[in-house]
TrEMBL record:
Residues 614-697 form the Coenzyme PQQ synthesis protein F-like C-terminal lobe domain. This is Coenzyme PQQ synthesis protein F. It comes from Pseudomonas capeferrum. Residues 420-552 form the Coenzyme PQQ synthesis protein F C-terminal lobe domain. Residues 19-143 form the Peptidase M16 N-terminal domain. Required for coenzyme pyrroloquinoline quinone (PQQ) biosynthesis. It is thought that this protein is a protease that cleaves peptides bond in a small peptide (gene pqqA), providing the glutamate and tyrosine residues which are necessary for the synthesis of PQQ. Keywords: Hydrolase, Metal-binding, Metalloprotease, PQQ biosynthesis, Protease, Zinc. PANTHER family: INSULIN-DEGRADING ENZYME-RELATED (PTHR43690:SF18), NARDILYSIN (PTHR43690). The gene is pqqF. Its cofactor is Zn(2+). NCBIfam families: PQQ_syn_pqqF (TIGR02110). Pathway: Cofactor biosynthesis; pyrroloquinoline quinone biosynthesis. Gene3D superfamilies: Metalloenzyme, LuxS/M16 peptidase-like (3.30.830.10). Belongs to the peptidase M16 family. The lineage of its organism: Bacteria, Pseudomonadati, Pseudomonadota, Gammaproteobacteria, Pseudomonadales. InterPro entries: Metalloenz_LuxS/M16 (IPR011249), Pept_M16_N (IPR011765), Pept_M16_Zn_BS (IPR001431), Peptidase_M16 (IPR050626), PQQ_synth_PqqF (IPR011844), PqqF-like_C_4 (IPR054734), PqqF_C_3 (IPR054733).
Amino acid sequence: MPDATRHLTLANGLQLTLRHAPRLKRAAAALRVHAGSHDAPAQWPGLAHFLEHLFFLGTRTFAQQHGLMRYVQSLGGQVNASTRERTTDFFFEVPPAALAGGLERLCQMLVEPDLGIERQRQEREVIHAEFIAWSRNPQAQQQFALLQSVSPQHPLSGFHAGNRFTLALQDPAFQRALGMFHQRFYQGGQVTLSLCGPQPLDALERLGRQFGSLFPAGGRVEQAMPPPLLAADQPFIFAHEGLPEGGERALGLLIDLLGDSRPGGWLNALRQRGWLRGVKAEPLYAFAGQMLWHIDLQLGTDASVDEAIALLHGWFGFIRQSDLQHLNAQFGQLQRSRERAASPLELARRDSADQPFAALDKQALRALEALLASLPYASHGQWQIPAADPLLTAEPLAAKAPLPAALAISDALPPTREYAALYLRWHLPSPLRRALFPILGQALRPLQERAEQAALQLQFSEAGEYWQLRCAGQPSAVLRAVDEALALLNAPSHDSWQGQPNPEPAQIPIRALLKQLPDAILGSNAEPLPPCTLDQPLLDQVWATARWHGLALGFEELAALGAVLGACPGQGATATPLPIWQGRRWVDTALAGSENALLLFCPVAANQQASGRLLAQLLQGPVYQRLRVELQLGYAVFSAFRQIEGCNGLLFGVQSPHASHAEILAHLHALLSQGVTLDCTARQALAEQFVESAMANAEVAEWAWQAHMAIQSDRLNDLHRSILMTQQADLDVLLGSLLAHRAPWLCLANAAAPGPAW
């Protein structure tokens, strides 16, 4: 059944969009203000971004500790904001019953922010820390360099993030500009509010009217028209002027076609030649008929760039002559699949941006024609439009077979959710696994690209001596994707053996540490590779010694699943829990970077999981307040309870441009030493997060998988009950054990240990 939607305009000018989707477990709100960094006075770069930050620092009605950020986090939800060139977005996702509380806080903080000078001074330092990290991030600098391709007169070529020097807090002119920007744009006529959830439309409308009416009345402000883009002549950057309305949606269809790597398309032509290493097409900017987008193409050293460009222009020419109605029908099928798989937050954000998961309407089709007409084209290459992808077919597989003994079935996710997940995990003691993994990853890449387009999650990962395949989404599509994936894992294509692995993109230190954390928890060591030739017989030999086990959730067609798993390589086995290391371990990752980054992982015993989760919940606010707000160590500060490789624990992360690793650890130790006080309201809120009907399907699946690896019960009701029974004494005992000198802490950092005892 399609979602029910409603659109209306409030008396104050606010545009309200409502979506009733009974299948959803959570609700979300997305509020778009039609003003961004390019609408701020040019003499104050970063003013719009700075104001976005200030909104979260508390108001007279809701102090910071009771504001939107803490409210949503306490409920296990998601919350964030983003300042773009011409828009600013605020969004959150919570349990349905909490939507009113979140919406009240969101609207109130935007209408009546506290712009006190001391608050501004503190937050400017956070903005400056973000600026430093941005200036040192290769990906961010690459994006900034792309924008330098436009005319110097266009605001896209300028700096708009803000820093300590552009945000002149003591200048009365800056303060006037800040207040005027808020008054001019944060009013009803500039706001689009989208609400999405399982609630009836009338209930959503009541909430939207109640809190949307907090904004003062106003009309739509005419945003200044930018000068022409005049992009430089670069082969993979495309600039458009004067596009009809609907250009962003039209570009979405074109990027989908471009990303289809099946035979007949541009990517397949590059891959057949052995040239393709990686590709990503993404929009960079869109406003008032202007659009800028980019193809980030990574080619092998033996590739002909000129021929790749010629092939691209030939493919553009082919698409220009194709039946756009047919292409749009296929696009609509993809969009319907994505809409079914989308989270409440994704749906609300798409609605607030007027980018629904749907086929192009007549206006957007006209924009597609204009978009194609403004692209370079030629008659070159042999092309075809692929048929509908089998991953989008809802029909179940016909083959049947018994389930293998190594596969466990969890009932944590009922089949009525129309969401299934399959986890397969291989233990491979041979060091050859490290050399073979990139080959298998390359073999799977085209399938992963198709799966992503079809709203499936297909991941192949390695950690320690393990490989893992995870596939989740619509049940019949998961079966088809896993069927293809296992065939490729058993026998990769010839091209996979010849190609070179893609270079890993540079990441900021804290993200790079998070990626290495599973390896550190498993305590894996880099063993020397024996001399050998990588080929199919060698892979067969490694598979012959592999042992696997797995978990399935949400499937009704178990016999079809059994048939698919008949091709699973290796021998079936049973899961064994990870042994916890003794004492403190420091892992120096030798990561490059000028900022200090540190992850501290404190394992928690299985019988203390409820206490650990509650302790993490109670620490989240104090850690953020002390380390980010008061000490201003940096903008990357977090704490949470995590399950990694079947190991439960508290995880703390900090990246700082000025504090040493020893200082970061000292601050964390001091916080833990202060203890926590049991908050019964927080305990109740945490317990309510662990009910199947309140958790996202992917969260339920991951919970069950982590419990399976740890040889623990996957009954959410048990955890729910244990959290409610947790007392102050339980928290004190757990904290005491974590602070003990021999507690098995794991510290992952981009430097050597500060001392033998650290």
